Amino acid sequence: MDTEIVKIILAFVVLINPFSALTLFLDSTRGYTLKDRRRFARISGITVFVTITFFTLAGELLLRALGISIGSFQVAGGVLVFLIAINIMNGEGNPAKPNDDSINFEDNRQGRGNTSAAVVPLAIPMIVGPGGISTVIIYSAQVSSWQQKLAIVIAGLLISVFCYLSLMAAGRLSRFLGDTGLNIMSRIMGILLAAVAIEILVNGIRTLFPHLV
User: Fold this and answer.
1) Could you list the mean pLDDT of each consecutive 10-residue stretch along the chain, which spans 213 residues?
2) How many CB atoms are closer than 10 A to CB 68?
C-alpha cells in the first residue's frame, strides 16, 4: 500500500477515532435486532465516507470561495487539532464533539429500527467532527493530481469500513476493553493526534513564511 495512503489513514484513525462513538451506538441501538444494528452501522459508515469524499473534492474550492489561503487554514486547523489532542490526553474528551450527556437517547430511539441518529449525531459530528473535516480539507488542498485525491478517497473508504466494523463489534469491544482500556486507548490516540497537529501547523507556517522555516 502506498505510504501516503498509510499516513492519511493513520491521521484519520487518530482524529476520527470511532471508539469514541461506541457508547452512543450501543445506547442508540438498545433493543434493536442484529439486522437493524447492522443497517444502523452501515448508514453511519456510508455517511463517514460521503463526508470525507465531499470535502476531499470540494474542500479547496470552499477555501477559494471564502478567500482563505491554505497556509492560514493549516495553521488554524493545526491549532484546533492540537487543542483537541490536549483535551483527549487530559481525559476530557474531544471538545469539538458532543458528549453523551448532551444527547437525548430516547429521541434517537423513536421506534425500534429507526436509523435517523446514524447520520446525526453518530456519524456527524460524533465520528467526523470539525477536526476531522478540517484535516480532510487540509490534506486535499495540499495535493494537485487526481491520483493523490484518489488516495485520500481510498483512505476515507478504508476508514469508513473500519468504523462499520468497530460499531458492529461495539458490545464486545466495550466488554473487552472496559472503561480503563478505552481511557488508555484514548490517551494514546491523543498523543498521536498531537503529533499530527504539529505537522499540520509546521506545514502551515512553512507555507505562509517559506523563508523562516
Assistant:
1) 67 74 82 90 95 92 88 88 82 58 50 74 84 86 84 90 91 76 77 83 88 66
2) 14
Treating both helix axes as pointing N-terminal to C-terminal, what angle do 34-66 and 146-168 enclose, rounded to 10 degrees?
A: 150
Name the CA radius of gyration of the chain, rounded. 17
**161-186 b/e (C-beta count within 10 Å ≥ 16 → b):** ebbbebbbebeebbeeeeeeebeeeb
152, 55 contact by CB (below 8 A): no
Q: What is the pLDDT of residue 157?
A: 93
Q: What SS3 class is residue 114?
A: coil
Residue 93 CB contacts under 8 Å (≥ 6 apart), including other chains:
20, 87, 99, 186
DSSP state of 68: -
Report how far residue 204's alpha carbon sits from residue 200's, in angstroms, rounded to the nearest whole number. Answer: 6
| pLDDT at res. 105 | 46
Closest CA relative to residue 134, chosen from 94, 68, 81: 81
Q: What are the CA-CA distances from residue 145 to residues 70, 125, 149 (Å)?
A: 16, 29, 7
The reported pLDDT for the residue numbered 70 is 86
The closest alpha carbon to 141, from 193, 97, 204, 213, belongs to 204
